Amino acid sequence: MKQPDRFTERFDWGLTFILLVFCIISLVGISSAQGQYEGNFVLKQAIWYGVGFFIIVGAVQFEPDQYRKMAPYLYVVGVTLLMVLAVAPESIAQETNGATRWLELPGIGSFQPSELMKIFYILMLASVVSRHQENFILKNIKHDLWLLGKILLVALIPMAFILRQPDLGTSLVFIAISAGVIIVSGVSWKLLIPAFSLTAVGSATVYFLVMHAPDWLELIGLRPYQFDRVISWRKPELYAADEGYNLLQAMTSIGSGQMLGNGFQSNQVNVPEHHTDFIFTTFGEDFGFIGASFVVAWFMFLIYHLTHIALLTKDPFSTYLSVGVISMLTFQVFQNIGMTIQVLPVTGLTLPLVSYGGTSIMITMFSLGLIYSIRFHHRNYMFGGDTEIK
Running DSSP on this structure, what letter comes out for residue 39? Predict the structure, then answer.
């Protein structure tokens, strides 16, 4: 069978359909939530989606091998932007809610360097792991430790700047990306099991310190407001006037929808950041358990589609790249939805493709553009013969 050559046959129309549905979901949710705000967020979000699709078309123009070559340079650009944010004057890097995460660029507006760094990190990580596997064909513990050391070094540099902002939520995204790529990289489970066990113990220790000795954590740069989020997560009713307010309002909003919801634009419960961080509550309140479940199911459909592409690609770099994107999106979805129903502590992570925000939409579309590139140029990287991505 001849491999498809025409653009219309090589372009991933299935993923495009998934994104168009997400666009509708996002616009519906924002339309319902924006009643408590001034400004037309729906129109702005539609424009950002339009820009995002242009980004995808641009991303497709480069083959995976070209991204692999560009990865180190893009990584340096991302780290440089984080360094600029760290030393920039308050006029272009204003502090908001105790954190400095945004650059105010004249003529462009607000821009969050850490969002772009997530994509550059995925590219760099995929490049480092694939090159390591090429250089060390024979696997042993020594080579695996060397690979883990490389990954740790590549991850710690941007994370150091991001934690300094501070932005614990984005740092956790970097950890999730790293974990996903490491699991599929071929590193021996003799190393992974102890490493993951130590991580679990470390997380439990941090939780214990937050609850009983927070002063110790301030010595490594964490801020008191981050501790409050964890404490108020456990017992939000005790912090109903401040740290626990958002969570209580979110749970009340979702619970009020019950099975079928209160109807579009019901807005019976005032939820802060209704159109951004807590947009999932809109679907629970307006469309009930059925509507909220549809949003979750559609994310599962997206992850399944991306996983299908990752499993079929033969090129190691493309595989690690796909896994990095999947890990990033999966963690952000799990974290955002989990925090609205008290499964996880509240962080500043938005719901990908649904929450309002130009930076979030463009970066997510860019990450998916990388998957489009793998699909579009698949004839160079598939198993051969008649095998192709459907």
Answer: S
